[in-house]
Each structure stands twice: as C-alpha cells, then as structure tokens.
Amino acid sequence: MTTKNIAGISVDVNEEGYMTNPSQWTEEIAKELAKEEDIELTDEHLKVAKYLREEHEKGTVLTIRMVGKSGLVDIKGLYKLFPGGPLKKSSKIAGIPKPTSCV
Amino acid sequence: MAEKKEEKPLKKVCIICAKGTIEDVYASLVMANGAVMEGIEAKMFFTFFGLDAITKKKMNKLHTGTVGNPAMTMPGGIPFPSLLGMLPGVEAGVSAMMKKQMEDLDIPPVDEFLDMITAGGGEIYACKLATDMFKLKKEDLSEHVIDIITIGDFYALASGDNTQIIFT
Fold it and tell me: Which residues of A touch B116 (CB under 8 A)?
C-alpha cells in the first residue's frame, strides 16, 4: 500500500490504484481518478459513484445488475459512462475497493 | 497481474456453448459477461442443446442433470443417489434450487443475462446446422441473436490477435 497525492490530498491506494480508505474520497479526487481512466467526470458519473459508495458502506457485494436496477442508469448507460470497465472503473473513481463479484 | 506487465492482454473471446444444462449455459454466460465487463470483446455461438439458452420458449426453463452427475450432492454434502434423481419432480426441484441460489448471488435469469451481455457490446449467434436440425427459425430465438451462422462464419469472427476460443 502506498500513498498518492490526488487533487492536493494525500490518499492511501493499493498497487492497482484503488483507494483503500473510502473516507478520504472527495469529488475532486473522483475527478482526478476519472481523468486517469480518460473519463470526463459528469454529474451522471458522480451519481453512480455515490450510489456505489453507499452500497459499499452497507457491505453489499456490488454487481452491474444492481446498478442497472438502481434507477440511476441502465446497464447500457453504465457501459457508456465507464467504457471497458462498468464496475471496475466506477468503483475506482468512487474510491472503494476493486469489486470482487463476477457479474 | 498488476505487478507484472501484461504484454499482450486478451482482446477477444469467442465462446461456444454446446450444452443446455444450467451449469453449462451459465458457465458460458458468466465468461462472456465477465469479458465485456473487463473491456474484452465477446462473441457467443450457441449450438446443439446450447440453443436452448437462446430459444425463447426454453431459455428460462433450463435444468440441471440429476442422473449420472457424480458431483451432485444434497445440501450438507451427502451424496445424491442417481436413483433419487430419476424420481418425478426431483430434477425440477434441484434446478429450482440452483436458480434460487444464483439469484441470491445476483446472477440473473438467462434472458436478463443476455440483455446484460449485449448491453456491454457482446454478440450472440446461433449455429446454422443445429437450428436446421432442431427446426428452429430466427423468430424462435431471442431478439439478441444477431444471426444464424455457420461455424466457418464464426471462425471468421474469431480472427485477430489475442483472441481465444472457449468451448463449454
């Protein structure tokens, strides 16, 4: 585990760049993390990120199916927001650990 | 993984599903969905009894074999006698239980799984030879089926670097 300076804040990250302490997360950090994934962060992205953070806090195992049923965005839309990594990239930007589910 | 530099990451998987039991079909679906979730292209080819998974009338009614399946156990790990599997209703009960357990893990029914895979850009094809054999037409199949194609066509779809063909 290392620390990384993101948006002027010192943040704990693992070797894959996932934040290990979700409480350090801010929207500014999300913006920077999104840039690393070539994503321009919009309110839509943030809504998904916040939803994932809430669910993660509850201890839910995250899946794209869940996000699709959240009413925020359908699965197609989720792929559009986070191309090539609907759950991985969104989790990374949301400052939560890498998802462990296969769906 | 992350510590070693990946020189040639996988770009495309072509998955052939030839069997129609719950476990065979879901193995294919999970692999295809897992691929598109990682940004890997996925193309699926359903043939022989695998066609059940994309046949509208059958896709959500798949079963698992309770006879001649040595890996099968009862809850608690007690061996499941094949003779028991022959009794009417047992196969349906076991299949329903498997579906319930998958639902608990947020694994969707087959039709919804196909929705998810195609939403991520995955492509679904049916085998020409097998559809002819089972007298199935395009309208009998899920609307996600792009086309009924030959195995030769499927190989053509599998061209390109860093592509793998997986047979289940």
Answer: 64-65, 68, 75, 103
Residue-wise pLDDT for A19-49, tens only, equals 999 999 999 999 999 999 999 999 999 999 9
**Could you tell me if residue A80 is inside a domain?**
yes
Chain A, residues 12-71, CB within 8 A of chain B, namely 15-16, 61, 63-66, 68
Q: Amino acid identity, residue A26?
A: T
- Residue B33's nearest CA partner among B47, B17, B49, B21 is B17
pLDDT digits 0-9 by tens, B136-157: 999 999 999 999 999 999 999 9
Q: What are the sequence ranges of the domains in chain B?
A: 12-65+109-167
User: Containing domain of residue A25, as a range?
Assistant: 2-93
A103 is a domain residue: no
Superfamily name and number for B12-65+109-167? DsrEFH-like (3.40.1260.10)
Residues in chain B: 168
Nearest-Cα distance to chain A for B20, in Å, is: 21
Whether B39 contacts B12, CB under 8 Å:
no
What pTM was computed for the model? 0.93
With an 8 Å Cβ cutoff, are B108 and A65 in contact? yes
Please tell me if residue A9 touches chain B, with a CB cutoff of 8 Å.
Answer: no
Q: Which residues of B79-98 are buried (b: 16+ CB within 10 A; e: fewer)?
A: ebeeeebeeeeebeebbeeb
What DSSP letter does each residue of A37-98 carry, written as one string? TT----HHHHHHHHHHHHHHHHTPPP-HHHHHHSSS--HHHHHHHSTT-TTHHHHHHTT-PP
